[in-house]
Amino acid sequence: MNNALTPGRTEVMLHLGSQAETFASEYLKPVESNWQASELLPLTSDESFISDLKTIQEQASNLSYDLLAVLVVDTITEEALPTYETWLAGLKGVSQTENNSWMKWIRAWTAEENRHGDALNRYLYLCGRINMREFEASTQYLIRDGFDNGASDDPYRNFIYTSFQELATNISHRRVASIAKQQGNALLSKMCGLVAADEARHAKAYKSFVSKIFEIDPTEMMLAFEDMMKKKIVMPAQYLRELGDKVNSFSSFSDCAQRLGVYTATDYVDILKGLIEEWNIENIRGLKEEGERARDYLTKLPDRLTRISERMKIPDTEFKFNWILA
Question: Does 169 qualify as catalytic in the annotation?
């Protein structure tokens, strides 16, 4: 696919921008009714703070090494939010929207996402099992190094990415919530469940944006979907590394996530299948010849990826991360 952004895509984004302000009211919650990190974790001003802290640390002592590793990387990913806002603000047809309506959506989405890092970071600080300097350095690396999702400044491809990514983070946080509960940590389970619920709403929003584009510009949207799946959807933490280390730690984290069943190759395929169904790919009309070829590729892709995932072997060896104290 030619990576050049067609003028038509910018025009479509400007057209949809007239509706962008309504997206926030439909898919996001008012600040006044949103949960905040301070409601989930004890405050130092609470009389019960010391006893609450002891309970948090006792429960955290039962968390498995792999779960802690996944929780740390999930938190680092959430904390790198400034990178994601900057990336979305640079899309063609976004910052140019009349009255900055797309930017109002992006800021509102960012504000809601920002709570995730706040809550998870504070939990890691309180739980007593994390080397916070190592964790913070990895977060700083990730924000400083940035990331490349392969979509350039094309809104079509980036909305494919955000649809996929929000679904993936929903799965990851939801599974961490479930495992934390199994390991006797009701507080962490509740927190991750709330984060997962936010990610589910955000996924609905971005999937809706893509659906609207398919109605207006089906061939170009199909080509964008094909292009992103050929490149593969990479995770925001793809350049993850530890303090003073130029070696990428993402593959070791991925092994942890797959061993736990938090996010696996099968999940990747299931998300793709869900998006193909959500966007009714098999029944979209008005496609040009190149759009038909792209559709053919996409509808056959899940079976091919399933065969590949069935041959994958997950390493049993635990990688030792500097973030985890014990």
Answer: yes
